[in-house]
Amino acid sequence: MSTVLEFFLKGEARQVAGLDTTLTLLDYLRDHCNLTGTKEGCNEGDCGACTVLLGHYEPLSEEVRYRAVNACITLLPAVHRHWVVTVEDLGDGPDNLHPVQDAMVRRHGSQCGFCTPGFVMSLAALHLDAASPDQAETYIAGNLCRCTGYGPILEAAKDSAEAPRHPAFTAKEHAAAQWFRSLSLDTGLFYEREGDRYDAPVSLKALLQARKDDPDAVLVAGTTELGLWVNKDLKDYPSLISTTRVPEMTAVTFLVDGTLSIGGAATYEQAWPLLRQVIPEGQDWFDRFASKQIRQQATIGGNVVNASPIGDGPPVLLALNASVKLSSISGERLVPLTDFFTGYKQTALASDEVLTAIHIPPRENDRQFAALKVSKRKDQDISAVMAVFSWRLENGRFRDVRIAFGGMSATPMVAQNTNAALEGKDASASAVEAALTALSEDFSPIDDLRASAWYRTTVAHNLLDAALREAIDSATQQHAEAPA
Hints:
Blueprint: E1 5-9, E2 12-16, H1 25-32, E3 51-58, E4 63-70, E5 83-85, H2 99-106, H3 116-128, H4 136-139, H5 150-160, H6 167-182, E6 189-193, E7 196-200, H7 204-213, E8 218-220, H8 226-231, E9 239-242, H9 247-250, E10 252-254, E11 260-263, H10 268-278, H11 283-289, H12 292-295, H13 300-306, H14 313-319, E12 323-328, E13 331-336, H15 337-340, E14 341-343, E15 346-347, E16 354-360, E17 367-374, E18 385-394, E19 397-406, E20 413-414, H16 416-422, H17 429-442, H18 453-481
Parallel strand pairs: 1-5, 7-9, 8-9
Antiparallel strand pairs: 1-2, 3-4, 3-5, 6-7, 10-11, 11-16, 12-13, 12-16, 14-15, 17-18, 18-19, 19-20
Helix pairs in contact: 2-5, 16-17, 17-18
Protein backbone atom coordinates (compact mmCIF):
# COMPACT_ATOMS: atom_id res chain seq x y z
CA MET A 1 0.00 0.00 0.00
CA SER A 2 1.35 3.38 -1.02
CA THR A 3 1.82 6.03 1.64
CA VAL A 4 2.83 8.78 -0.79
CA LEU A 5 0.89 10.35 -3.64
CA GLU A 6 2.14 9.45 -7.10
CA PHE A 7 1.03 11.30 -10.21
CA PHE A 8 2.38 12.67 -13.47
CA LEU A 9 2.56 16.45 -13.89
CA LYS A 10 4.40 18.84 -16.16
CA GLY A 11 6.29 16.06 -17.93
CA GLU A 12 7.56 14.26 -14.87
CA ALA A 13 6.54 11.80 -12.17
CA ARG A 14 5.76 13.40 -8.82
CA GLN A 15 5.81 11.86 -5.36
CA VAL A 16 4.16 13.97 -2.69
CA ALA A 17 4.01 13.54 1.07
CA GLY A 18 3.54 15.85 4.03
CA LEU A 19 0.74 17.99 2.54
CA ASP A 20 -2.77 18.30 3.96
CA THR A 21 -5.09 15.42 3.11
CA THR A 22 -7.77 17.94 2.09
CA LEU A 23 -5.48 20.19 0.03
CA THR A 24 -7.25 20.85 -3.26
CA LEU A 25 -5.63 20.20 -6.60
CA LEU A 26 -6.13 23.87 -7.47
CA ASP A 27 -4.18 25.08 -4.44
CA TYR A 28 -1.44 22.54 -5.07
CA LEU A 29 -1.00 23.65 -8.67
CA ARG A 30 -0.96 27.34 -7.91
CA ASP A 31 0.77 27.49 -4.52
CA HIS A 32 3.18 24.57 -4.71
CA CYS A 33 3.97 24.31 -8.43
CA ASN A 34 3.54 27.89 -9.65
CA LEU A 35 1.24 26.61 -12.40
CA THR A 36 -1.00 29.65 -12.37
CA GLY A 37 -2.75 29.08 -15.69
CA THR A 38 -5.40 27.21 -13.67
CA LYS A 39 -7.53 29.98 -12.15
CA GLU A 40 -9.59 30.27 -8.99
CA GLY A 41 -12.98 31.78 -9.76
CA CYS A 42 -15.92 30.60 -7.69
CA ASN A 43 -14.01 27.92 -5.73
CA GLU A 44 -17.12 25.76 -5.69
CA GLY A 45 -17.14 23.98 -9.05
CA ASP A 46 -19.51 26.32 -10.90
CA CYS A 47 -17.45 28.66 -13.10
CA GLY A 48 -14.96 26.24 -14.72
CA ALA A 49 -11.97 28.60 -14.52
CA CYS A 50 -10.02 25.88 -12.71
CA THR A 51 -10.74 23.12 -15.26
CA VAL A 52 -7.96 20.58 -15.76
CA LEU A 53 -7.87 17.14 -17.33
CA LEU A 54 -7.18 13.93 -15.46
CA GLY A 55 -5.69 11.22 -17.64
CA HIS A 56 -5.85 7.54 -16.77
CA TYR A 57 -4.38 4.61 -18.64
CA GLU A 58 -6.44 1.84 -20.24
CA PRO A 59 -4.17 -1.22 -20.40
CA LEU A 60 -6.36 -3.12 -22.88
CA SER A 61 -6.39 -0.36 -25.48
CA GLU A 62 -3.02 1.06 -24.36
CA GLU A 63 -4.55 4.51 -24.50
CA VAL A 64 -4.76 7.45 -22.13
CA ARG A 65 -8.36 8.54 -21.53
CA TYR A 66 -9.24 11.98 -20.22
CA ARG A 67 -11.95 13.64 -18.18
CA ALA A 68 -12.31 17.32 -17.38
CA VAL A 69 -12.74 18.14 -13.69
CA ASN A 70 -12.87 21.21 -11.49
CA ALA A 71 -9.54 21.40 -9.65
CA CYS A 72 -11.03 23.57 -6.91
CA ILE A 73 -13.17 20.73 -5.50
CA THR A 74 -10.79 17.88 -6.30
CA LEU A 75 -8.69 16.77 -3.34
CA LEU A 76 -5.04 16.19 -4.18
CA PRO A 77 -5.07 12.52 -3.00
CA ALA A 78 -7.77 11.84 -5.60
CA VAL A 79 -5.24 12.32 -8.44
CA HIS A 80 -3.06 9.46 -7.17
CA ARG A 81 -1.88 7.50 -10.24
CA HIS A 82 -3.29 10.00 -12.73
CA TRP A 83 -1.77 12.36 -15.27
CA VAL A 84 -2.75 15.90 -14.31
CA VAL A 85 -3.00 17.91 -17.53
CA THR A 86 -3.02 21.69 -17.11
CA VAL A 87 -3.28 24.43 -19.70
CA GLU A 88 0.52 24.69 -19.66
CA ASP A 89 0.72 21.15 -21.07
CA LEU A 90 -1.28 21.64 -24.25
CA GLY A 91 1.11 23.43 -26.60
CA ASP A 92 4.81 24.18 -26.65
CA GLY A 93 5.11 27.92 -26.10
CA PRO A 94 3.51 30.91 -27.87
CA ASP A 95 4.96 29.97 -31.23
CA ASN A 96 3.65 26.38 -31.14
CA LEU A 97 0.10 26.56 -29.84
CA HIS A 98 -2.32 23.70 -29.43
CA PRO A 99 -5.15 23.81 -32.05
CA VAL A 100 -7.63 24.96 -29.39
CA GLN A 101 -5.33 27.75 -28.24
CA ASP A 102 -4.63 28.79 -31.83
CA ALA A 103 -8.34 28.88 -32.67
CA MET A 104 -9.12 30.93 -29.57
CA VAL A 105 -6.52 33.50 -30.67
CA ARG A 106 -7.73 33.65 -34.26
CA ARG A 107 -11.39 33.86 -33.29
CA HIS A 108 -10.76 36.45 -30.55
CA GLY A 109 -12.22 34.08 -27.96
CA SER A 110 -10.55 35.83 -25.04
CA GLN A 111 -11.57 39.19 -23.61
CA CYS A 112 -10.43 39.83 -20.03
CA GLY A 113 -8.85 36.37 -20.25
CA PHE A 114 -9.52 35.13 -16.73
CA CYS A 115 -11.90 32.38 -17.82
CA THR A 116 -9.92 31.51 -20.95
CA PRO A 117 -7.71 28.68 -19.58
CA GLY A 118 -10.79 26.86 -18.32
CA PHE A 119 -12.52 27.17 -21.67
CA VAL A 120 -9.37 25.99 -23.42
CA MET A 121 -9.21 22.90 -21.23
CA SER A 122 -12.86 22.04 -21.79
CA LEU A 123 -12.43 22.41 -25.55
CA ALA A 124 -9.22 20.37 -25.34
CA ALA A 125 -11.35 17.59 -23.83
CA LEU A 126 -13.71 17.92 -26.81
CA HIS A 127 -10.70 17.66 -29.13
CA LEU A 128 -9.18 14.67 -27.36
CA ASP A 129 -12.52 12.85 -27.29
CA ALA A 130 -12.81 13.41 -31.06
CA ALA A 131 -16.32 14.64 -30.35
CA SER A 132 -18.44 16.49 -32.88
CA PRO A 133 -18.24 20.30 -32.89
CA ASP A 134 -22.01 20.17 -32.35
CA GLN A 135 -21.27 19.01 -28.80
CA ALA A 136 -19.24 22.10 -27.94
CA GLU A 137 -21.99 23.65 -25.86
CA THR A 138 -22.21 20.46 -23.79
CA TYR A 139 -18.46 20.54 -23.14
CA ILE A 140 -18.39 24.21 -22.09
CA ALA A 141 -21.71 24.35 -20.21
CA GLY A 142 -19.67 24.37 -17.00
CA ASN A 143 -17.52 27.33 -18.04
CA LEU A 144 -18.75 30.86 -17.37
CA CYS A 145 -17.53 33.97 -19.21
CA ARG A 146 -18.32 37.25 -17.46
CA CYS A 147 -17.38 39.15 -20.64
CA THR A 148 -20.13 37.28 -22.58
CA GLY A 149 -17.67 36.03 -25.20
CA TYR A 150 -19.43 32.77 -26.00
CA GLY A 151 -19.88 33.35 -29.75
CA PRO A 152 -16.17 33.50 -30.61
CA ILE A 153 -15.48 30.60 -28.21
CA LEU A 154 -18.00 28.41 -30.04
CA GLU A 155 -16.41 29.40 -33.34
CA ALA A 156 -13.04 28.36 -31.93
CA ALA A 157 -14.58 25.04 -30.91
CA LYS A 158 -15.76 24.42 -34.47
CA ASP A 159 -12.34 25.32 -35.89
CA SER A 160 -10.35 23.09 -33.54
CA ALA A 161 -12.58 20.08 -32.82
CA GLU A 162 -11.52 18.10 -35.87
CA ALA A 163 -7.90 19.32 -36.06
CA PRO A 164 -5.17 16.66 -35.85
CA ARG A 165 -3.47 15.89 -32.57
CA HIS A 166 -0.75 18.39 -31.68
CA PRO A 167 2.75 16.83 -31.91
CA ALA A 168 3.97 18.48 -28.71
CA PHE A 169 0.99 17.18 -26.76
CA THR A 170 1.33 13.74 -28.30
CA ALA A 171 4.95 13.58 -27.13
CA LYS A 172 3.84 14.45 -23.57
CA GLU A 173 1.09 11.85 -23.78
CA HIS A 174 3.68 9.26 -24.82
CA ALA A 175 5.84 10.13 -21.81
CA ALA A 176 2.81 9.88 -19.51
CA ALA A 177 1.90 6.47 -20.99
CA GLN A 178 5.42 5.22 -20.30
CA TRP A 179 5.06 6.37 -16.70
CA PHE A 180 1.71 4.59 -16.37
CA ARG A 181 3.25 1.36 -17.66
CA SER A 182 6.11 1.65 -15.16
CA LEU A 183 3.80 1.70 -12.14
CA SER A 184 3.70 -1.31 -9.88
CA LEU A 185 0.46 -3.15 -9.05
CA ASP A 186 -1.99 -0.82 -7.33
CA THR A 187 -2.43 -2.05 -3.76
CA GLY A 188 -4.23 1.03 -2.47
CA LEU A 189 -3.35 4.34 -0.88
CA PHE A 190 -3.03 5.19 2.79
CA TYR A 191 -1.94 8.81 2.99
CA GLU A 192 -1.36 10.51 6.34
CA ARG A 193 -0.30 13.89 7.66
CA GLU A 194 -0.11 14.71 11.36
CA GLY A 195 -2.84 12.23 12.23
CA ASP A 196 -5.15 13.12 9.36
CA ARG A 197 -5.79 10.22 6.99
CA TYR A 198 -6.97 9.59 3.45
CA ASP A 199 -7.54 5.88 2.91
CA ALA A 200 -8.23 4.64 -0.64
CA PRO A 201 -8.47 0.83 -0.66
CA VAL A 202 -8.68 -1.13 -3.91
CA SER A 203 -10.77 -4.10 -2.79
CA LEU A 204 -14.33 -4.16 -1.52
CA LYS A 205 -13.33 -6.23 1.51
CA ALA A 206 -10.67 -3.68 2.47
CA LEU A 207 -13.17 -0.84 1.99
CA LEU A 208 -15.76 -2.47 4.25
CA GLN A 209 -13.11 -3.30 6.85
CA ALA A 210 -11.89 0.29 6.85
CA ARG A 211 -15.47 1.44 7.32
CA LYS A 212 -15.94 -0.89 10.29
CA ASP A 213 -12.63 0.13 11.86
CA ASP A 214 -13.35 3.84 11.53
CA PRO A 215 -17.13 4.48 11.59
CA ASP A 216 -16.56 8.20 12.18
CA ALA A 217 -14.61 8.60 8.95
CA VAL A 218 -16.28 10.44 6.08
CA LEU A 219 -16.76 8.40 2.92
CA VAL A 220 -15.75 10.37 -0.18
CA ALA A 221 -16.14 9.77 -3.89
CA GLY A 222 -16.37 12.71 -6.28
CA THR A 223 -16.07 15.34 -3.49
CA THR A 224 -18.36 17.68 -5.44
CA GLU A 225 -20.15 18.34 -2.15
CA LEU A 226 -17.31 17.83 0.33
CA GLY A 227 -15.17 20.22 -1.71
CA LEU A 228 -17.66 22.97 -0.89
CA TRP A 229 -17.53 22.13 2.80
CA VAL A 230 -13.74 22.38 2.71
CA ASN A 231 -13.57 25.60 0.68
CA LYS A 232 -16.62 27.50 1.91
CA ASP A 233 -17.34 26.16 5.39
CA LEU A 234 -13.64 25.61 6.20
CA LYS A 235 -14.46 22.25 7.76
CA ASP A 236 -11.78 19.80 8.87
CA TYR A 237 -11.90 16.12 7.99
CA PRO A 238 -9.33 14.16 9.98
CA SER A 239 -10.33 10.82 8.45
CA LEU A 240 -11.49 10.22 4.88
CA ILE A 241 -12.16 6.91 3.13
CA SER A 242 -12.35 7.00 -0.66
CA THR A 243 -14.63 4.56 -2.48
CA THR A 244 -13.46 5.28 -6.00
CA ARG A 245 -10.58 2.82 -6.40
CA VAL A 246 -12.68 -0.31 -5.78
CA PRO A 247 -13.69 -1.90 -9.11
CA GLU A 248 -17.05 -3.16 -7.81
CA MET A 249 -17.91 0.35 -6.68
CA THR A 250 -17.54 1.83 -10.16
CA ALA A 251 -19.08 -1.02 -12.15
CA VAL A 252 -22.25 -0.38 -14.15
CA THR A 253 -23.92 -3.45 -15.63
CA PHE A 254 -27.17 -5.22 -16.38
CA LEU A 255 -27.71 -8.27 -14.18
CA VAL A 256 -29.06 -11.55 -15.53
CA ASP A 257 -32.65 -10.63 -14.69
CA GLY A 258 -32.37 -7.28 -16.49
CA THR A 259 -31.83 -5.20 -13.35
CA LEU A 260 -29.47 -2.28 -13.90
CA SER A 261 -26.80 -2.27 -11.20
CA ILE A 262 -24.93 1.02 -10.73
CA GLY A 263 -21.91 0.89 -8.43
CA GLY A 264 -22.03 3.27 -5.48
CA ALA A 265 -18.98 5.19 -6.75
CA ALA A 266 -19.92 5.26 -10.44
CA THR A 267 -20.11 8.78 -11.81
CA TYR A 268 -23.10 10.08 -13.71
CA GLU A 269 -21.07 9.98 -16.93
CA GLN A 270 -20.07 6.36 -16.29
CA ALA A 271 -23.64 5.30 -15.58
CA TRP A 272 -25.44 7.20 -18.32
CA PRO A 273 -24.71 4.92 -21.33
CA LEU A 274 -26.64 2.07 -19.65
CA LEU A 275 -29.07 4.24 -17.68
CA ARG A 276 -30.01 5.91 -20.97
CA GLN A 277 -31.20 2.51 -22.20
CA VAL A 278 -33.69 2.47 -19.32
CA ILE A 279 -34.81 6.11 -19.64
CA PRO A 280 -34.01 7.40 -23.13
CA GLU A 281 -36.49 10.21 -22.38
CA GLY A 282 -34.09 11.43 -19.67
CA GLN A 283 -31.47 13.02 -21.95
CA ASP A 284 -32.53 16.58 -21.10
CA TRP A 285 -32.50 15.72 -17.38
CA PHE A 286 -28.99 14.30 -17.72
CA ASP A 287 -27.67 17.27 -19.70
CA ARG A 288 -29.09 19.71 -17.17
CA PHE A 289 -28.08 17.72 -14.10
CA ALA A 290 -24.75 19.56 -13.98
CA SER A 291 -21.77 20.50 -16.12
CA LYS A 292 -19.69 17.83 -17.80
CA GLN A 293 -16.94 18.52 -15.28
CA ILE A 294 -19.32 17.72 -12.42
CA ARG A 295 -20.97 14.74 -14.14
CA GLN A 296 -17.52 13.21 -14.66
CA GLN A 297 -16.78 13.54 -10.96
CA ALA A 298 -20.07 13.35 -9.04
CA THR A 299 -21.29 9.86 -8.18
CA ILE A 300 -24.89 8.69 -8.18
CA GLY A 301 -24.33 6.88 -4.88
CA GLY A 302 -22.89 10.01 -3.30
CA ASN A 303 -25.89 11.99 -4.53
CA VAL A 304 -28.18 9.46 -2.84
CA VAL A 305 -26.27 9.24 0.45
CA ASN A 306 -26.04 13.02 0.66
CA ALA A 307 -29.84 12.92 0.89
CA SER A 308 -30.29 16.48 -0.27
CA PRO A 309 -33.95 17.43 -0.76
CA ILE A 310 -33.00 19.27 -3.96
CA GLY A 311 -30.75 16.66 -5.59
CA ASP A 312 -31.77 15.90 -9.16
CA GLY A 313 -30.87 12.20 -9.06
CA PRO A 314 -32.95 10.70 -6.21
CA PRO A 315 -36.40 11.67 -7.58
CA VAL A 316 -35.56 9.88 -10.83
CA LEU A 317 -34.44 6.78 -8.94
CA LEU A 318 -37.57 6.88 -6.76
CA ALA A 319 -39.78 6.97 -9.83
CA LEU A 320 -37.82 4.02 -11.25
CA ASN A 321 -38.55 1.98 -8.09
CA ALA A 322 -34.84 1.69 -7.28
CA SER A 323 -33.30 -0.05 -4.30
CA VAL A 324 -29.91 0.45 -2.70
CA LYS A 325 -27.50 -2.29 -1.64
CA LEU A 326 -25.96 -1.50 1.73
CA SER A 327 -22.91 -3.59 2.58
CA SER A 328 -20.82 -4.13 5.68
CA ILE A 329 -18.10 -6.57 6.61
CA SER A 330 -20.78 -8.83 8.11
CA GLY A 331 -23.21 -8.87 5.19
CA GLU A 332 -25.44 -6.87 2.90
CA ARG A 333 -29.07 -5.82 2.62
CA LEU A 334 -31.24 -4.43 -0.16
CA VAL A 335 -33.36 -1.46 0.90
CA PRO A 336 -36.06 0.18 -1.23
CA LEU A 337 -35.05 3.78 -1.89
CA THR A 338 -38.43 4.87 -0.52
CA ASP A 339 -37.27 3.58 2.89
CA PHE A 340 -33.72 4.91 2.67
CA PHE A 341 -34.41 8.60 3.28
CA THR A 342 -35.43 9.00 6.93
CA GLY A 343 -35.28 12.79 7.38
CA TYR A 344 -33.51 15.92 6.26
CA LYS A 345 -29.99 14.80 5.29
CA GLN A 346 -30.65 11.53 7.15
CA THR A 347 -30.64 7.97 5.80
CA ALA A 348 -30.97 4.36 6.89
CA LEU A 349 -27.24 3.77 6.31
CA ALA A 350 -25.64 2.23 9.40
CA SER A 351 -22.28 3.46 10.70
CA ASP A 352 -20.45 0.37 9.42
CA GLU A 353 -22.16 0.26 6.03
CA VAL A 354 -21.31 1.49 2.54
CA LEU A 355 -23.80 2.02 -0.27
CA THR A 356 -22.25 -0.36 -2.77
CA ALA A 357 -24.86 -0.39 -5.54
CA ILE A 358 -28.13 1.04 -6.80
CA HIS A 359 -30.50 -1.44 -8.41
CA ILE A 360 -33.09 -0.35 -10.98
CA PRO A 361 -35.57 -3.09 -11.97
CA PRO A 362 -36.31 -3.81 -15.63
CA ARG A 363 -38.66 -1.34 -17.26
CA GLU A 364 -41.93 -2.46 -18.80
CA ASN A 365 -42.21 -1.70 -22.51
CA ASP A 366 -45.36 0.36 -22.08
CA ARG A 367 -44.13 2.50 -19.17
CA GLN A 368 -44.19 6.25 -19.74
CA PHE A 369 -41.53 8.40 -18.11
CA ALA A 370 -40.67 12.09 -17.87
CA ALA A 371 -38.14 13.95 -15.70
CA LEU A 372 -38.70 17.71 -15.57
CA LYS A 373 -36.41 20.22 -13.88
CA VAL A 374 -37.42 23.79 -13.07
CA SER A 375 -34.61 26.19 -12.16
CA LYS A 376 -33.69 29.84 -12.65
CA ARG A 377 -31.08 29.02 -15.29
CA LYS A 378 -31.21 26.20 -17.78
CA ASP A 379 -27.64 25.03 -17.14
CA GLN A 380 -25.56 24.91 -14.00
CA ASP A 381 -28.33 25.63 -11.53
CA ILE A 382 -29.96 23.92 -8.57
CA SER A 383 -33.55 22.84 -8.95
CA ALA A 384 -36.43 24.75 -7.45
CA VAL A 385 -38.62 21.75 -8.28
CA MET A 386 -37.67 18.38 -9.74
CA ALA A 387 -40.69 16.39 -10.94
CA VAL A 388 -40.57 12.82 -12.26
CA PHE A 389 -43.62 11.07 -13.66
CA SER A 390 -43.79 7.35 -14.38
CA TRP A 391 -46.81 5.17 -15.09
CA ARG A 392 -48.34 2.67 -17.47
CA LEU A 393 -51.57 3.08 -19.38
CA GLU A 394 -53.53 -0.16 -19.58
CA ASN A 395 -56.86 -0.08 -21.39
CA GLY A 396 -57.05 3.64 -20.72
CA ARG A 397 -56.33 3.29 -16.99
CA PHE A 398 -53.31 4.39 -14.95
CA ARG A 399 -51.28 1.47 -13.63
CA ASP A 400 -48.13 1.21 -11.49
CA VAL A 401 -48.04 4.97 -10.93
CA ARG A 402 -44.80 6.31 -9.50
CA ILE A 403 -44.56 10.09 -9.20
CA ALA A 404 -41.67 11.60 -7.23
CA PHE A 405 -40.52 15.13 -6.43
CA GLY A 406 -37.42 16.92 -5.24
CA GLY A 407 -37.47 20.36 -3.65
CA MET A 408 -40.93 19.86 -2.21
CA SER A 409 -40.12 18.40 1.22
CA ALA A 410 -37.26 17.66 3.62
CA THR A 411 -36.32 14.62 1.54
CA PRO A 412 -36.76 13.50 -2.05
CA MET A 413 -40.14 11.81 -1.87
CA VAL A 414 -42.68 9.73 -3.71
CA ALA A 415 -46.08 11.45 -3.93
CA GLN A 416 -47.98 8.65 -2.20
CA ASN A 417 -51.43 10.22 -2.09
CA THR A 418 -51.14 11.37 -5.68
CA ASN A 419 -50.06 7.92 -6.81
CA ALA A 420 -52.98 6.34 -4.96
CA ALA A 421 -55.43 8.84 -6.43
CA LEU A 422 -54.40 7.83 -9.95
CA GLU A 423 -53.85 4.10 -9.57
CA GLY A 424 -56.44 2.14 -11.55
CA LYS A 425 -58.35 5.27 -12.57
CA ASP A 426 -59.43 6.12 -16.10
CA ALA A 427 -57.21 8.64 -17.85
CA SER A 428 -59.79 11.42 -17.64
CA ALA A 429 -60.31 14.97 -16.45
CA SER A 430 -61.71 13.70 -13.15
CA ALA A 431 -58.48 11.77 -12.51
CA VAL A 432 -56.52 14.96 -13.12
CA GLU A 433 -58.58 16.86 -10.57
CA ALA A 434 -58.24 14.07 -7.99
CA ALA A 435 -54.48 13.91 -8.49
CA LEU A 436 -54.04 17.68 -8.15
CA THR A 437 -56.04 17.65 -4.91
CA ALA A 438 -53.97 14.74 -3.58
CA LEU A 439 -50.72 16.51 -4.47
CA SER A 440 -51.59 19.29 -2.03
CA GLU A 441 -51.91 16.62 0.67
CA ASP A 442 -48.50 15.14 -0.17
CA PHE A 443 -46.33 18.24 0.11
CA SER A 444 -45.99 21.42 2.14
CA PRO A 445 -42.85 23.04 0.71
CA ILE A 446 -40.94 25.84 2.42
CA ASP A 447 -39.79 29.29 1.37
CA ASP A 448 -36.07 29.63 0.76
CA LEU A 449 -33.62 31.52 -1.45
CA ARG A 450 -34.40 29.42 -4.50
CA ALA A 451 -38.19 29.63 -4.48
CA SER A 452 -41.19 30.39 -2.32
CA ALA A 453 -43.57 27.72 -1.10
CA TRP A 454 -46.28 29.21 -3.32
CA TYR A 455 -44.05 29.03 -6.38
CA ARG A 456 -43.03 25.42 -5.71
CA THR A 457 -46.63 24.35 -5.14
CA THR A 458 -47.85 26.13 -8.25
CA VAL A 459 -45.07 24.73 -10.44
CA ALA A 460 -45.58 21.18 -9.14
CA HIS A 461 -49.31 21.37 -9.86
CA ASN A 462 -48.73 22.79 -13.34
CA LEU A 463 -46.20 20.10 -14.21
CA LEU A 464 -48.48 17.33 -12.98
CA ASP A 465 -51.48 18.80 -14.79
CA ALA A 466 -49.57 19.02 -18.08
CA ALA A 467 -48.15 15.49 -17.76
CA LEU A 468 -51.56 13.97 -16.99
CA ARG A 469 -53.28 15.76 -19.84
CA GLU A 470 -50.59 14.50 -22.18
CA ALA A 471 -51.27 10.99 -20.85
CA ILE A 472 -54.98 11.44 -21.52
CA ASP A 473 -54.21 12.42 -25.10
CA SER A 474 -52.01 9.32 -25.40
CA ALA A 475 -54.76 7.08 -24.01
CA THR A 476 -57.30 8.60 -26.41
CA GLN A 477 -54.99 8.00 -29.34
CA GLN A 478 -54.38 4.40 -28.24
CA HIS A 479 -58.12 3.80 -28.07
CA ALA A 480 -58.65 5.33 -31.50
CA GLU A 481 -55.95 3.14 -33.04
CA ALA A 482 -57.15 -0.06 -31.36
CA PRO A 483 -58.72 -2.61 -33.75
CA ALA A 484 -62.50 -2.68 -33.64
